[in-house]
Each structure stands twice: as C-alpha cells, then as structure tokens.
Design a protein that fits this description.
The complex is a heterodimer of chains A (about 475) and B (about 100). Chain A has 15 helices and eleven strands. Chain A has a single domain (about 5-265, about 395-480), classed as Amidase signature (AS) enzymes, CATH 3.90.1300.10. Chain A is about 40% helix and about 15% strand. In chain A, strands 1-3-2-4-6-5-10-11-9-7-8 form an eleven-stranded mixed sheet, with helices on both faces. Chain A is an alpha/beta fold. Chain A has helices at about 5-15, 20-40, 45-65, 105-115, 155-165, 180-185, 220-230, 275-290, 305-320, 340-350, 355-365, 370-390, 420-425, 430-435, 465-480; strands at about 40-45, 75-80, 120-125, 170-175, 190-195, 215-220, 260-265, 295-300, 400, 435-445, 450-460. Chain A is globular, with a radius of gyration of 21 Å. Chain B has about 100 residues and is mainly alpha-helical. Helix content of chain B is about 30%, strand content about 5%. A two-stranded antiparallel sheet of chain B has the order 1-2. Classes of the chains: A alpha/beta (about 475), B mainly alpha (about 100).
C-alpha cells in the first residue's frame, strides 16, 4: 500500500486512474483484519457495504463523471458510534442502545457521503461519550496503537485509534470537553474541535447540548481542513448551527505565519504538567517563533474553576438529554407493572456506571433547593471564563497549550477514581465552555515509553482558518513520523 | 451547599434510576467526593453584573418557516421500538 496516505496524494492517484478506491479501502480492511481484534477501535464493520461504496466510486471515475465537487472521493472514513448512519447500528457504546439501528443519516454523515467518502465502520467510544479513556464502553476498552497496555483516550478513543492505525484515513468524533483533542493527542493524530455552532449536531446523540460539537480526526492537518470544509455549515435541522458563510479551509494553508500572535496562558504551565510534555511544548514554541510567530504571555485567571464548572453544566445537561432513554420508543427495555417501574428498571439496568453517576450528579445540581447554588453559579462562572478568553484574545490571535498534562495512561489506572479521570480534561474543557475552536496536533514523543505528545492551539470562535494555518505551518516545519509500532 | 445534604435515594428516584445496594454505596461516596470538589465554585467572587451563560453563542428565537415537509415514516419510526403493535408503541397500563 502507498506510504503517503494524505487525501491529496490518494485522490490525485485515484482521479488519474493509478489507484482505485477499492484498493485504498482494501488496504484499510487488511489492517483492520490484522489489528482490530487487539485494538477494538471499530465496534461494527460492514465491509460489504463499504466495498460497494468503493465500487460505485471507481465506476464513476471510469465513466468520467464530473467529480469536481467531491473533496473526500474514495477516502475511507470511520464514524463515532454516537453519530447516526442510515441502516447501521448506533449503540453509543451502551447496553441501552445495543440493538439500535439508525433510521436516518446525521447531517454530517450525509455530507460525507455527498463528498465521496467511503463509510467504513463505527468507532468505539466511552458510553454516551462520557469518559476520557473508552473504558466505560459497553463493548470493552479500545487500546492505544502505540502501547496496547494503555488507553487511547476518550471519549472518541476508537476514532483516534482507528486513524492512528490507518484502519481509515479520517474519522468523525464528538468533543464535549476534549473528546476529540485528548484522544488525538494520546494516539498521535490530528483532532479538530470546530467552534460551537460551526457543524450541525443533527443526528449526534446529545450529551451536553451547549458543549457538544462534531469534528474530524486525521493523520494530517490538511486532511482535517478538508473534512471540516465538508461537514461545516448551517443546517435548518440544528437551530444552534450558525448562519456563517461556508469557508475554504484548505487554500489558506501554506501562508506564512509571520507576525501571528500566539498567547501562552500562564495558568496552563504549572505544577502537574509532565516534564516531558513541558519540554516538547517548549521546543514547539521555539519552532513557531522561528517561523515568525510572536509569542506573548497571557492570563486566564479563572482556569482553576473550569473543571468544576464543566462538571456541573455537562452533568445537568446530560441528565436532561438522557431522560429520553426510558424503554418506550427505542432501545433496551425491562418490563414493569406500570410505566414508572418500567422506567426505573430499564434505566437502572441499561446505563453503565459512569452514565448513572453523571445523571445523578446532574439531577442533583438541578434539583429544587440546589439549582442556584450549583447550576446557576456554574453558569455565572462560565461567564467569567468566557470573559477571560475575550480579554486574552484582544491581545493574541491564538493560544498554545499542551493538549493534556501527560501522555496516555495505563488501562485501569484511573478507572476507579472518577475525579482523577475528570482532571485530565483540564486544558481542553474551556474551549467547550467558551465555544472556541481548538486543535490538537502531534509535537513529539516521550522517551520511555515512547508515546505521542500533542499540542493544542485554540482560536476565537469561527477563526478555524487561522487555527489551521498555524497548525499546518508547524506540521510542515516538523514532519513528525506518526507510525505506531503495530 | 453541603454535600452532606446529598440524599442518594431521593436523587435516584428523581432520575428514575433503580440502583443496587452496592451502587448506592460506591456511587454515593463518589458523587459526594465530586461534589466536594465542585464546592470550590463557592469561593469565586461573582458580582451582580455577571449574567449566567447558558449557551456559548448568543442566539434567541430561532424559527423556521411554518411549512409542511417530509418526515420519518411511521414504520421506520417504529423499527427500534422494544414493543409495538398496530402502528403504536406498547406500554404498560397507565389508567386503572
């Protein structure tokens, strides 16, 4: 199989007839066959359906159809199993939906089809996207392709592991508090969380509606830019999607970044940051300086309250969103003598532990007598966090931070301590609270064990172009070789 | 706002969640630990001018034209139902 797996390179060859969509897909299927049983990145594979899609693309190329408007032509893509894909399972990695078949396509899924992508399989996740390691998945944990004793991150851990192992060349994930960027960092790939409202959430199983956003995971920045171009845009079916004009995220790549102001929030470079991560980030900062970026210190004073704020808001929203799983219209059901008993039993046995924990927390912070003290207060602190970012963004174009304070941890290391697990989100959750765009890109390795390290760039809402421009410039200057030892 | 006031049985009932005795014990202590952490929000200085943020992008009253469009057909909508008959979701008896 061709070594250069960039969309651009593969597409050139496919369009010239030097490579078929079927052979690109076959390469992915061979790797899936060889390694998915140990990685558990994909939890459902419909190889026949995928091959049929590839055959149709090859036929269209042979016929000489007009395929100008197909930026993902023949590119195998995996979809996180909480995003609807017509007539395919969507389990959200939960017993609650283990037999659910999507009756329609999510808007993003339809956009991928129209762009010529080959939908290859469904990627594992933490149950209902609640977790940072895929350990809460009903289908079992996914493993990190760089070290199978370690987690791939989460909640889009299956998507990140699948891209890293080249089971597919792009994947969709969803990011509520870092669920695209954190696993991208742990698995050595690119993960982009678009600005809130940039991408339609229609067909995404809602976890926390004011925080959730769908985005791409890829091997290269340019590929992420292409995928964003395909999935972005206003959708009448999602009233929170923003009526911003569709942008070209690819053509700006390669512009120089001289004079670009990049802020380093002092609150993100503190105790608890792994020294190896710190070192890799310091080197990355130097690289960007050499490319002409201006590095400035900034401050986000309310950072220390971000996790507490986030876990009030996301659990409150989750407790409301997950009320729909009641055993009546779809999903798992335990019978009861009356509806109430049916609900209680269905939800008690259908949800896993972490989901129950979050529903309980969310129910509590919204309950009579506690609403003001917890939920309303968290919403006000959210305002303070937003103001921190607005003030800082008056001085800089982008911010640079580590994506996660450390490299991928071992299976089970934090599984019994939910609070420790939550603390790994410290650098990523503010972007969700504020609605910023953010990206994680590889910036080196730890030494022993050798594990990928990611750096995060954050931009103002709807400034993905700038974000991608700087990410691309860094990537081109460094060219990290991100091939896991499979 | 003290986590001592956290009544697991009451909250589980509100959330319509049957929990085993074991879950009551383990989750109760975990939730209390998390609430203890969340308590730090009490120490944030918030003046009266600070409005709550419910949504990152300010928007209100998003409407669409009131027009009839195609939707999921009945058979498709019922496909995932745990129990259905005659085009209806089947539920336990509600009224005595």
């Amino acid at each position: 199989m061709n070594k250069d797996l960039s969309f651009h390179c593969l597409q050139n060859q496919m369009r010239q007839g030097d490579l078929s969509a079927q052979s690109v897909l076959q390469g992915c299927l061979d790797r899936i066959q060889a390694h998915n049983s140990s990685l558990n990145a994909l939890i459902h594979l419909d190889a026949k359906d995928a091959m049929q899609q590839a055959v149709q693309i090859d036929q269209a190329i042979q016929r000489g159809d007009n395929l100008e408007n197909k930026p993902l032509l023949g590119i195998p893509v995996a979809i996180k199993d909480n995003i609807a894909q017509l007539d395919q399972p969507m389990t959200c990695a939960s017993k609650m939906l283990r037999q659910f078949i999507s009756p329609y396509d999510a808007t993003v899924t339809r956009a991928l089809r129209e762009a010529g992508a080959v939908l290859v399989g469904r990627a594992n996740l933490d149950e209902f996207a609640m977790g940072s390691s895929t350990e809460t998945s009903f289908h079992g944990v996914s493993r990190n392709p760089w070290d199978k004793d370690r987690i791939p991150g989460g909640s889009s851990g299956g998507s990140a592991a699948a891209v890293s192992a080249a089971f597919c060349l792009g994947a969709l994930g969803s990011d509520t508090g870092g669920s695209i960027r954190q696993p991208a960092s742990y698995c050595g790939c690119v993960g982009l969380k678009p600005s809130y409202g940039r991408v339609s959430r229609f067909g995404l199983t809602a976890f926390a509606s004011s925080l959730d956003q769908i985005g791409p995971l890829t091997l290269k920045v340019e590929d992420a830019a292409r995928m964003l171009g395909v999935i972005a845009g206003h959708d009448p079916k999602d009233s929170t999607s923003v009526k911003a004009p569709s942008e070209d995220y690819v053509s700006g790549l390669g512009q120089d970044i001289k004079g670009m102001k990049i802020g380093l929030p002092s609150e993100y470079f503190v105790e608890g940051l792994d020294p190896e991560v710190r070192r890799a980030i310091d080197v990355a900062i130097k690289t960007l300086e050499n490319l002409g970026a201006l590095i400035c210190p900034i401050s986000l004073p309310h950072t220390e309250f971000a996790i507490a704020t986030y876990y009030v808001i996301c659990t409150a929203e989750a407790s409301a969103n997950l009320a729909r799983f009641d055993g009546i219209r779809y999903g798992h059901r335990e019978e009861g003598k009356d509806p109430l008993e049916l609900y209680n039993r269905t939800r008690g046995s259908g949800f896993g532990e972490e989901v129950k924990r979050r529903i309980l927390l969310g129910t509590y912070v919204l309950s009579s007598g506690y609403y003001d003290a917890y939920y309303l207060r968290a919403q006000k602190v959210r305002t303070l966090i937003r103001q921190d970012f607005e003030r800082a963004f008056e001085k800089v174009d982008l911010m640079l931070t580590p994506t996660v304070p450390s490299t991928a941890f071992e299976l089970g290391e934090k599984a019994s301590d939910p609070l420790q697990m939550y603390l790994t989100d410290i650098f990523t959750i503010s972007a969700n609270l504020v609605g910023n765009c953010g990206i994680s890109i590889p910036c080196g390795f730890s030494e022993n064990p050798r594990l990928p390290i990611g750096l995060q760039l954050m931009g103002r809402p709807f400034e993905e172009q700038k974000l991608l421009q700087v990410a691309y410039a860094y990537e081109q200057a460094t060219q990290w070789k991100m091939e896991p030892p499979l | 706002m003290s986590e001592e006031s956290f009544d697991m049985h009451y909250v589980a009932r509100l959330a319509r969640l049957n929990l085993t005795e074991e879950e009551h014990v383990t989750m109760g202590s975990q939730v209390e630990q998390i609430l203890g952490y969340i308590k730090q929000l009490q120490s944030v200085e918030i003046d009266e001018t600070i409005q709550p943020t419910a949504h990152p992008i300010p928007m209100s009253n998003v409407t669409r034209p009131d027009a009839v469009t195609a939707s999921l057909d009945q058979a498709k909508a019922l496909e995932n139902a745990p129990l259905q008959a005659n085009g209806l979701f089947m539920v336990p008896k509600i009224v005595e």
